[in-house]
Write a structure and sequence with these properties.
Length: about 475
Protein backbone atom coordinates (compact mmCIF):
# COMPACT_ATOMS: atom_id res chain seq x y z
CA UNK A 1 0.00 0.00 0.00
CA UNK A 2 2.94 2.29 0.67
CA UNK A 3 5.11 1.31 -2.30
CA UNK A 4 3.72 3.98 -4.71
CA UNK A 5 6.41 5.48 -6.97
CA UNK A 6 7.12 9.08 -5.97
CA UNK A 7 9.83 9.59 -8.56
CA UNK A 8 8.09 12.58 -10.14
CA UNK A 9 7.73 14.28 -6.75
CA UNK A 10 11.36 13.37 -5.99
CA UNK A 11 12.65 15.52 -8.86
CA UNK A 12 13.58 18.21 -6.33
CA UNK A 13 15.76 15.85 -4.31
CA UNK A 14 19.43 16.41 -5.12
CA UNK A 15 21.73 13.44 -5.72
CA UNK A 16 25.46 13.30 -6.36
CA UNK A 17 26.22 14.32 -9.97
CA UNK A 18 27.38 10.83 -10.88
CA UNK A 19 24.26 9.06 -9.60
CA UNK A 20 20.83 8.43 -11.05
CA UNK A 21 17.69 9.22 -9.06
CA UNK A 22 16.54 5.80 -7.81
CA UNK A 23 13.04 4.58 -8.55
CA UNK A 24 10.87 2.36 -6.39
CA UNK A 25 10.32 0.27 -9.49
CA UNK A 26 13.97 -0.81 -9.49
CA UNK A 27 13.56 -2.82 -6.30
CA UNK A 28 12.90 -6.52 -6.63
CA UNK A 29 10.28 -7.00 -3.95
CA UNK A 30 10.44 -10.79 -4.18
CA UNK A 31 14.17 -11.19 -3.67
CA UNK A 32 15.60 -12.32 -0.36
CA UNK A 33 19.07 -13.08 -1.64
CA UNK A 34 20.79 -9.71 -1.72
CA UNK A 35 20.75 -6.83 0.70
CA UNK A 36 21.71 -4.49 -2.17
CA UNK A 37 18.15 -4.87 -3.47
CA UNK A 38 16.84 -2.89 -0.52
CA UNK A 39 18.76 0.39 -0.58
CA UNK A 40 19.86 2.91 -3.19
CA UNK A 41 23.62 2.92 -3.83
CA UNK A 42 23.95 6.71 -3.54
CA UNK A 43 22.87 8.90 -0.64
CA UNK A 44 20.81 12.02 -0.97
CA UNK A 45 22.68 15.31 -0.64
CA UNK A 46 19.73 17.65 -0.22
CA UNK A 47 15.97 17.50 0.18
CA UNK A 48 14.37 20.79 -0.84
CA UNK A 49 11.15 22.40 0.21
CA UNK A 50 9.80 20.05 2.88
CA UNK A 51 7.73 20.70 5.97
CA UNK A 52 9.35 19.73 9.28
CA UNK A 53 7.58 18.74 12.51
CA UNK A 54 7.71 21.23 15.39
CA UNK A 55 8.33 24.13 12.97
CA UNK A 56 6.07 26.74 11.38
CA UNK A 57 3.66 24.75 9.16
CA UNK A 58 3.52 27.64 6.67
CA UNK A 59 7.25 27.41 5.94
CA UNK A 60 9.30 24.81 4.11
CA UNK A 61 12.95 23.87 4.50
CA UNK A 62 15.99 22.62 2.65
CA UNK A 63 17.73 19.79 4.49
CA UNK A 64 21.31 18.89 3.54
CA UNK A 65 22.77 15.46 4.29
CA UNK A 66 26.31 14.11 4.31
CA UNK A 67 27.80 10.91 5.75
CA UNK A 68 24.35 9.77 6.85
CA UNK A 69 23.63 12.84 9.02
CA UNK A 70 21.90 16.19 8.69
CA UNK A 71 24.48 18.91 8.02
CA UNK A 72 22.28 21.98 7.56
CA UNK A 73 18.65 23.13 7.64
CA UNK A 74 17.80 26.32 5.75
CA UNK A 75 14.60 28.14 4.96
CA UNK A 76 13.39 27.28 1.45
CA UNK A 77 13.32 30.45 -0.63
CA UNK A 78 11.21 29.54 -3.68
CA UNK A 79 7.73 28.20 -4.38
CA UNK A 80 8.81 24.80 -5.65
CA UNK A 81 9.39 21.84 -3.35
CA UNK A 82 8.25 18.32 -2.60
CA UNK A 83 4.91 19.19 -0.98
CA UNK A 84 5.84 16.64 1.67
CA UNK A 85 6.70 16.26 5.34
CA UNK A 86 10.14 15.05 6.39
CA UNK A 87 9.68 13.35 9.75
CA UNK A 88 11.76 11.06 11.98
CA UNK A 89 11.43 7.49 10.77
CA UNK A 90 9.12 5.02 12.47
CA UNK A 91 9.88 2.10 14.78
CA UNK A 92 8.32 -1.19 15.85
CA UNK A 93 9.32 -1.52 19.52
CA UNK A 94 7.52 -4.86 19.77
CA UNK A 95 6.57 -7.06 16.82
CA UNK A 96 6.39 -10.84 16.38
CA UNK A 97 8.24 -11.75 13.20
CA UNK A 98 7.53 -15.48 13.13
CA UNK A 99 3.77 -15.48 13.81
CA UNK A 100 2.70 -12.85 11.28
CA UNK A 101 0.06 -13.39 8.56
CA UNK A 102 -0.89 -16.91 9.65
CA UNK A 103 -4.60 -16.25 9.07
CA UNK A 104 -4.05 -15.27 5.44
CA UNK A 105 -1.59 -18.03 4.58
CA UNK A 106 -3.10 -21.09 2.80
CA UNK A 107 -0.77 -23.35 4.77
CA UNK A 108 -2.77 -22.54 7.91
CA UNK A 109 -6.25 -22.18 6.42
CA UNK A 110 -7.70 -24.75 8.82
CA UNK A 111 -6.54 -22.77 11.86
CA UNK A 112 -9.20 -20.06 11.80
CA UNK A 113 -10.58 -18.24 14.84
CA UNK A 114 -13.74 -19.78 16.31
CA UNK A 115 -13.97 -18.11 19.73
CA UNK A 116 -11.43 -15.29 19.87
CA UNK A 117 -9.93 -15.88 23.32
CA UNK A 118 -6.35 -16.09 24.57
CA UNK A 119 -6.43 -19.85 25.18
CA UNK A 120 -7.65 -20.49 21.63
CA UNK A 121 -5.03 -18.13 20.19
CA UNK A 122 -2.30 -19.95 22.10
CA UNK A 123 -3.62 -23.34 20.93
CA UNK A 124 -3.93 -22.30 17.26
CA UNK A 125 -0.48 -20.74 17.28
CA UNK A 126 1.06 -23.82 18.91
CA UNK A 127 -0.40 -25.97 16.13
CA UNK A 128 0.84 -23.52 13.49
CA UNK A 129 4.33 -23.59 14.98
CA UNK A 130 4.47 -27.37 14.53
CA UNK A 131 4.19 -26.74 10.76
CA UNK A 132 6.72 -23.93 10.45
CA UNK A 133 9.43 -24.37 7.83
CA UNK A 134 12.41 -22.22 6.93
CA UNK A 135 10.92 -21.12 3.59
CA UNK A 136 7.59 -20.31 5.23
CA UNK A 137 9.20 -18.24 7.99
CA UNK A 138 11.40 -16.34 5.53
CA UNK A 139 8.47 -15.61 3.22
CA UNK A 140 6.13 -14.26 5.88
CA UNK A 141 8.95 -12.44 7.66
CA UNK A 142 9.94 -10.77 4.41
CA UNK A 143 6.35 -9.57 3.93
CA UNK A 144 6.38 -7.97 7.37
CA UNK A 145 9.77 -6.31 6.98
CA UNK A 146 9.16 -4.94 3.50
CA UNK A 147 5.69 -3.61 4.33
CA UNK A 148 7.14 -2.00 7.45
CA UNK A 149 10.01 -0.35 5.56
CA UNK A 150 7.57 0.95 2.94
CA UNK A 151 5.56 2.54 5.76
CA UNK A 152 8.66 4.37 7.07
CA UNK A 153 10.10 1.91 9.62
CA UNK A 154 13.91 1.90 9.96
CA UNK A 155 14.25 -0.09 13.18
CA UNK A 156 12.30 -2.79 14.95
CA UNK A 157 12.51 -5.27 17.80
CA UNK A 158 11.52 -8.61 16.29
CA UNK A 159 10.45 -11.44 18.58
CA UNK A 160 11.27 -14.98 17.45
CA UNK A 161 10.25 -17.95 19.53
CA UNK A 162 12.60 -20.61 20.84
CA UNK A 163 11.16 -23.75 22.43
CA UNK A 164 11.03 -27.51 22.19
CA UNK A 165 8.62 -27.35 19.23
CA UNK A 166 10.31 -24.91 16.83
CA UNK A 167 13.78 -25.16 18.38
CA UNK A 168 15.92 -22.69 16.35
CA UNK A 169 13.77 -22.49 13.19
CA UNK A 170 12.33 -19.06 13.98
CA UNK A 171 15.63 -17.75 15.30
CA UNK A 172 17.54 -18.89 12.21
CA UNK A 173 15.01 -17.20 9.94
CA UNK A 174 15.10 -14.02 12.01
CA UNK A 175 18.89 -13.82 11.90
CA UNK A 176 18.88 -14.44 8.14
CA UNK A 177 16.39 -11.62 7.57
CA UNK A 178 18.29 -9.32 9.92
CA UNK A 179 21.42 -9.78 7.80
CA UNK A 180 19.63 -9.38 4.48
CA UNK A 181 17.95 -6.12 5.45
CA UNK A 182 20.71 -4.69 7.63
CA UNK A 183 21.27 -1.59 5.46
CA UNK A 184 17.56 -0.84 5.11
CA UNK A 185 16.36 -1.49 8.67
CA UNK A 186 17.96 -2.13 12.05
CA UNK A 187 16.36 -5.36 13.23
CA UNK A 188 16.93 -6.28 16.87
CA UNK A 189 16.36 -9.99 17.39
CA UNK A 190 14.69 -11.00 20.64
CA UNK A 191 15.06 -14.69 21.48
CA UNK A 192 11.65 -15.17 23.03
CA UNK A 193 10.27 -17.84 25.37
CA UNK A 194 6.51 -17.82 24.77
CA UNK A 195 6.22 -21.22 26.42
CA UNK A 196 6.96 -21.94 30.04
CA UNK A 197 10.55 -22.42 31.15
CA UNK A 198 9.89 -23.94 34.57
CA UNK A 199 6.50 -25.71 34.23
CA UNK A 200 5.57 -28.80 32.26
CA UNK A 201 7.39 -31.66 30.60
CA UNK A 202 9.24 -29.62 27.97
CA UNK A 203 10.29 -26.73 30.24
CA UNK A 204 13.86 -27.93 30.83
CA UNK A 205 14.42 -28.49 27.11
CA UNK A 206 12.99 -25.07 26.23
CA UNK A 207 15.21 -23.45 28.85
CA UNK A 208 18.29 -25.24 27.50
CA UNK A 209 17.48 -24.09 23.96
CA UNK A 210 16.93 -20.51 25.12
CA UNK A 211 20.28 -20.51 26.93
CA UNK A 212 21.95 -21.50 23.66
CA UNK A 213 19.90 -19.05 21.59
CA UNK A 214 20.76 -15.93 23.55
CA UNK A 215 24.46 -16.57 23.00
CA UNK A 216 24.08 -16.62 19.21
CA UNK A 217 25.70 -13.75 17.32
CA UNK A 218 23.03 -11.30 16.23
CA UNK A 219 20.69 -11.87 19.18
CA UNK A 220 20.14 -8.59 21.01
CA UNK A 221 17.40 -9.26 23.56
CA UNK A 222 16.25 -11.88 26.07
CA UNK A 223 12.46 -12.16 26.09
CA UNK A 224 10.12 -14.18 28.27
CA UNK A 225 6.49 -14.57 29.34
CA UNK A 226 6.40 -15.29 33.07
CA UNK A 227 2.60 -15.46 33.30
CA UNK A 228 2.46 -18.73 31.31
CA UNK A 229 4.05 -20.59 34.23
CA UNK A 230 1.76 -22.73 36.37
CA UNK A 231 2.17 -20.94 39.69
CA UNK A 232 3.63 -17.83 41.27
CA UNK A 233 6.81 -19.55 42.42
CA UNK A 234 7.68 -20.68 38.90
CA UNK A 235 6.80 -17.23 37.57
CA UNK A 236 9.44 -15.78 39.86
CA UNK A 237 11.94 -18.40 38.69
CA UNK A 238 11.19 -17.38 35.12
CA UNK A 239 11.81 -13.70 35.92
CA UNK A 240 15.03 -14.42 37.83
CA UNK A 241 16.31 -16.58 34.97
CA UNK A 242 15.52 -13.93 32.36
CA UNK A 243 17.22 -11.13 34.32
CA UNK A 244 20.32 -13.15 35.12
CA UNK A 245 20.62 -14.43 31.55
CA UNK A 246 20.28 -10.95 30.08
CA UNK A 247 22.98 -9.56 32.38
CA UNK A 248 25.32 -12.49 31.87
CA UNK A 249 25.02 -12.26 28.08
CA UNK A 250 24.96 -8.44 27.91
CA UNK A 251 21.49 -8.27 26.33
CA UNK A 252 18.43 -6.06 26.65
CA UNK A 253 15.48 -7.52 28.59
CA UNK A 254 11.89 -7.65 27.34
CA UNK A 255 9.11 -9.24 29.39
CA UNK A 256 5.46 -9.81 28.58
CA UNK A 257 3.85 -9.01 31.93
CA UNK A 258 0.48 -8.83 33.70
CA UNK A 259 -1.67 -9.62 30.68
CA UNK A 260 -5.05 -9.63 32.42
CA UNK A 261 -7.76 -7.35 33.78
CA UNK A 262 -8.36 -9.31 36.98
CA UNK A 263 -8.37 -7.13 40.07
CA UNK A 264 -8.04 -10.24 42.25
CA UNK A 265 -4.63 -11.05 40.72
CA UNK A 266 -1.63 -9.31 42.21
CA UNK A 267 0.40 -7.62 39.47
CA UNK A 268 3.85 -9.11 38.90
CA UNK A 269 5.44 -5.80 37.94
CA UNK A 270 6.40 -4.98 41.53
CA UNK A 271 8.25 -8.23 42.17
CA UNK A 272 10.04 -7.91 38.82
CA UNK A 273 11.23 -4.41 39.69
CA UNK A 274 12.35 -5.61 43.12
CA UNK A 275 14.36 -8.39 41.45
CA UNK A 276 15.99 -5.91 39.06
CA UNK A 277 17.07 -3.76 41.99
CA UNK A 278 18.27 -6.75 44.01
CA UNK A 279 20.35 -8.01 41.08
CA UNK A 280 21.76 -4.48 40.57
CA UNK A 281 20.72 -4.12 36.92
CA UNK A 282 21.63 -0.42 36.81
CA UNK A 283 25.32 -1.16 37.44
CA UNK A 284 25.68 -4.70 36.09
CA UNK A 285 23.85 -4.08 32.80
CA UNK A 286 24.98 -0.58 31.89
CA UNK A 287 23.47 0.69 28.66
CA UNK A 288 20.94 -2.14 28.41
CA UNK A 289 17.23 -1.35 28.36
CA UNK A 290 14.25 -3.04 29.99
CA UNK A 291 10.83 -3.22 28.37
CA UNK A 292 7.58 -4.44 29.89
CA UNK A 293 4.96 -5.29 27.26
CA UNK A 294 1.16 -5.46 27.58
CA UNK A 295 0.83 -4.85 31.38
CA UNK A 296 -2.93 -4.46 31.00
CA UNK A 297 -3.49 -5.23 34.70
CA UNK A 298 -1.92 -1.84 35.43
CA UNK A 299 -4.93 -0.09 33.89
CA UNK A 300 -6.74 -0.92 37.13
CA UNK A 301 -4.20 1.03 39.22
CA UNK A 302 -5.22 3.98 41.38
CA UNK A 303 -3.35 7.28 41.27
CA UNK A 304 -1.43 6.27 44.39
CA UNK A 305 -0.45 2.92 42.88
CA UNK A 306 0.92 4.69 39.79
CA UNK A 307 2.87 7.13 41.94
CA UNK A 308 4.26 4.31 44.06
CA UNK A 309 5.27 2.43 40.90
CA UNK A 310 7.22 5.42 39.63
CA UNK A 311 9.04 5.73 42.95
CA UNK A 312 9.80 2.00 42.98
CA UNK A 313 11.33 2.11 39.48
CA UNK A 314 13.83 4.77 40.48
CA UNK A 315 16.67 4.93 37.95
CA UNK A 316 15.98 1.60 36.25
CA UNK A 317 15.82 2.09 32.42
CA UNK A 318 12.29 0.70 32.14
CA UNK A 319 9.83 1.52 29.37
CA UNK A 320 6.26 0.29 29.10
CA UNK A 321 5.12 -0.66 25.61
CA UNK A 322 1.38 -0.61 25.07
CA UNK A 323 0.05 -2.96 22.39
CA UNK A 324 -3.43 -1.61 21.67
CA UNK A 325 -4.41 -3.67 18.63
CA UNK A 326 -3.82 -6.94 20.49
CA UNK A 327 -5.10 -5.69 23.83
CA UNK A 328 -8.36 -4.38 22.41
CA UNK A 329 -9.01 -7.71 20.70
CA UNK A 330 -8.06 -9.88 23.68
CA UNK A 331 -8.90 -7.84 26.78
CA UNK A 332 -12.13 -6.57 28.34
CA UNK A 333 -14.63 -8.90 26.74
CA UNK A 334 -18.09 -8.90 28.37
CA UNK A 335 -18.75 -11.48 31.06
CA UNK A 336 -20.90 -14.44 30.07
CA UNK A 337 -24.52 -13.30 29.89
CA UNK A 338 -23.74 -9.57 29.70
CA UNK A 339 -25.68 -7.63 27.10
CA UNK A 340 -22.66 -5.85 25.65
CA UNK A 341 -22.57 -2.83 27.93
CA UNK A 342 -19.45 -3.97 29.80
CA UNK A 343 -16.60 -2.84 27.55
CA UNK A 344 -13.35 -1.60 29.04
CA UNK A 345 -10.48 -0.46 26.82
CA UNK A 346 -8.03 -2.86 28.47
CA UNK A 347 -4.80 -1.33 27.17
CA UNK A 348 -2.17 0.81 28.85
CA UNK A 349 -2.97 4.51 28.75
CA UNK A 350 0.55 5.28 27.54
CA UNK A 351 0.28 9.07 27.00
CA UNK A 352 -1.28 9.55 30.43
CA UNK A 353 1.39 7.38 32.09
CA UNK A 354 4.11 9.54 30.59
CA UNK A 355 2.50 12.90 31.26
CA UNK A 356 1.17 12.37 34.77
CA UNK A 357 3.67 9.91 36.25
CA UNK A 358 6.88 10.57 34.30
CA UNK A 359 7.08 6.99 33.09
CA UNK A 360 8.75 6.02 29.81
CA UNK A 361 6.54 4.46 27.17
CA UNK A 362 5.81 3.64 23.55
CA UNK A 363 3.18 1.83 21.52
CA UNK A 364 3.66 -1.11 19.18
CA UNK A 365 1.88 -3.27 16.62
CA UNK A 366 2.73 -6.60 18.33
CA UNK A 367 1.01 -9.22 16.16
CA UNK A 368 -0.39 -8.99 12.63
CA UNK A 369 -2.80 -11.43 11.03
CA UNK A 370 -2.86 -14.19 13.63
CA UNK A 371 -5.25 -15.42 16.29
CA UNK A 372 -3.85 -12.99 18.88
CA UNK A 373 -4.46 -10.02 16.56
CA UNK A 374 -6.28 -10.75 13.31
CA UNK A 375 -6.67 -7.09 12.36
CA UNK A 376 -4.22 -4.29 11.60
CA UNK A 377 -1.18 -3.83 9.38
CA UNK A 378 2.53 -3.03 9.50
CA UNK A 379 2.07 0.75 9.56
CA UNK A 380 2.86 2.44 12.91
CA UNK A 381 1.16 5.65 11.71
CA UNK A 382 -2.12 3.76 11.34
CA UNK A 383 -1.63 2.54 14.91
CA UNK A 384 -1.04 6.11 16.12
CA UNK A 385 -4.16 7.23 14.26
CA UNK A 386 -6.24 4.51 15.93
CA UNK A 387 -4.89 5.63 19.30
CA UNK A 388 -6.40 9.10 18.87
CA UNK A 389 -9.69 7.36 19.61
CA UNK A 390 -8.38 4.75 22.04
CA UNK A 391 -6.73 7.38 24.24
CA UNK A 392 -9.15 10.18 23.32
CA UNK A 393 -6.07 12.18 22.43
CA UNK A 394 -6.70 14.72 19.68
CA UNK A 395 -4.91 17.94 20.59
CA UNK A 396 -1.78 19.15 18.85
CA UNK A 397 0.41 18.00 21.74
CA UNK A 398 -1.50 14.70 21.96
CA UNK A 399 -0.75 13.80 18.36
CA UNK A 400 2.89 14.83 18.73
CA UNK A 401 3.16 12.39 21.64
CA UNK A 402 1.46 9.64 19.61
CA UNK A 403 3.94 10.16 16.77
CA UNK A 404 6.80 10.07 19.29
CA UNK A 405 5.39 6.79 20.64
CA UNK A 406 5.81 5.09 17.25
CA UNK A 407 9.05 6.89 16.40
CA UNK A 408 11.54 8.57 18.73
CA UNK A 409 10.17 7.22 22.03
CA UNK A 410 9.87 3.73 20.55
CA UNK A 411 13.51 3.87 19.42
CA UNK A 412 14.62 5.10 22.85
CA UNK A 413 12.69 2.31 24.59
CA UNK A 414 14.60 -0.42 22.76
CA UNK A 415 18.01 1.27 22.80
CA UNK A 416 18.05 2.52 19.19
CA UNK A 417 17.95 6.22 20.07
CA UNK A 418 18.28 8.68 22.91
CA UNK A 419 15.94 11.63 22.54
CA UNK A 420 12.17 11.87 22.29
CA UNK A 421 11.77 15.13 20.39
CA UNK A 422 10.45 15.11 16.82
CA UNK A 423 12.39 18.23 15.90
CA UNK A 424 14.89 17.63 13.12
CA UNK A 425 18.28 19.10 14.05
CA UNK A 426 21.73 19.41 12.52
CA UNK A 427 23.73 16.33 13.51
CA UNK A 428 20.73 14.00 13.55
CA UNK A 429 21.07 10.66 11.80
CA UNK A 430 19.29 10.90 8.44
CA UNK A 431 16.68 8.23 9.17
CA UNK A 432 13.45 9.76 7.91
CA UNK A 433 10.09 9.06 6.37
CA UNK A 434 9.09 11.43 3.60
CA UNK A 435 5.29 11.68 3.63
CA UNK A 436 3.40 13.25 0.74
CA UNK A 437 1.06 16.03 1.85
CA UNK A 438 -1.39 15.21 -0.94
CA UNK A 439 -2.31 12.06 -2.81
CA UNK A 440 -0.92 12.20 -6.34
CA UNK A 441 -4.40 11.38 -7.65
CA UNK A 442 -5.82 14.47 -5.96
CA UNK A 443 -7.85 15.04 -2.82
CA UNK A 444 -7.08 17.00 0.30
CA UNK A 445 -3.68 18.27 1.35
CA UNK A 446 -2.29 17.70 4.84
CA UNK A 447 -0.95 20.91 6.40
CA UNK A 448 0.17 19.82 9.88
CA UNK A 449 1.42 16.84 11.84
CA UNK A 450 -2.09 16.55 13.28
CA UNK A 451 -3.41 16.01 9.76
CA UNK A 452 -0.89 13.18 9.24
CA UNK A 453 -2.06 11.38 12.38
CA UNK A 454 -5.77 11.98 11.88
CA UNK A 455 -5.58 10.43 8.40
CA UNK A 456 -2.17 8.96 7.53
CA UNK A 457 -1.28 9.34 3.83
CA UNK A 458 -0.12 6.19 2.11
CA UNK A 459 2.42 7.75 -0.24
CA UNK A 460 5.80 7.69 1.49
CA UNK A 461 9.49 7.17 0.96
CA UNK A 462 11.89 5.88 3.60
CA UNK A 463 15.44 7.11 4.15
CA UNK A 464 18.03 5.19 6.12
CA UNK A 465 21.27 7.07 6.82
CA UNK A 466 20.42 9.36 3.89
CA UNK A 467 19.77 6.55 1.39
CA UNK A 468 16.41 5.91 -0.20
CA UNK A 469 15.22 2.46 0.83
Amino acid sequence: AHGIDLQSEMSNVQFPPTSISPSAGNHDQTSTDSREDHISPHPMEEIRGVKLPCRDPDKTWDVSIADGHVTSIDLHQSQDGLDAFLCPSLCHPHIHLDKCFLLSDPNYADLSIQEGGFAEALSLTTEAKSRFSSDDLLRRGRWLIEESIAAGVTCMRAFVEVDATVRFKCLDAGLTLKARYRDACEIQICAFAQDSLFSGDSAAESRRLMEQAVQREGVDVVGSTPYVEHDEGRMRENVDWAIETAMKCDKHLDLHLDYNLDVSKMPMVHSVIDALHEKDWTHRAKGKKIVFGHCTRLTLFTTKQWTDLRIQIGHLPISFVGLPTSDLFMMGKPSEGEGGGERVRGTLQVPQMMEEYDLQGAIGVNNIGNAFTPQGNCDPLCLASMCVGVYQAGTQRDVEVLYECVSTRAKAAIGCGDGCSLEVEVGDKADFVLIQAKNHRGGRRRHTLQDLIYGPPQERKTLRAGHLV
